[in-house]
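thought: fold this chain, then report.
action: predict
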Amino acid sequence: MGFVVAIDGPAGTGKGTVTKIIAEDLGLVYIDTGAMYRCVTLTALRKNVKPVECDELIEILENIEIELKPNEENFLNGENVSAQIRTPQIDDNVAKFAALKVVRDKMTLLEQKMGKDGNVIMEGRDIGTVVFPDADVKIYLDCSVEERARRRYKQNLEKGIEISYKDVLESIKQRHKLETQREIAPLRQAEDAILVDSTNMTIEEVVEKIEKIIKQKMK
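observation:
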């Protein structure tokens, strides 16, 4: 296994933005595991498959092809779905599908395959606890729920998605509840992960702090 950096934490903490910057700065391969679960969710919703373990969902998982491009483009069975997987509808449903064992087992295998041979930085919910428990660096990026909702609301506005701050906050709260209370690979801080609270930090400050930690391990 190459050098692996695991970045875990709830939605809206800035994991994606921070991880992409660090990957470029340090020459690591960036892997957005959340996008993978979003691809599963999009496929299921398109086929009217509910978030329960059923033959239809198993068939989706057996045939799904997910490709994560370096330029932040995500391909699902050959289709660029970068925009489609970032809608409020996917936000509201992805945690339900991600809670299913059959989905997590499939995604975990894909994630482990992606990170097996290269020097990667992978962000998600269970990277340091399940996918790569022996990761060289484990970071748990956290943030207040209000600040997370504010950031997601701002992102939605920038993308032209109209949804109120109140609805975004409620969605964030519900998703956090699902992710932390699910039976399979719940979101939690690994015992040996370093906590970074980004509530009152700029992106630059978070990047600087995490890069310092990674560089010490790379020596």
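thought: worth noting. The chain has a mean pLDDT of 93.
final: tokens above.
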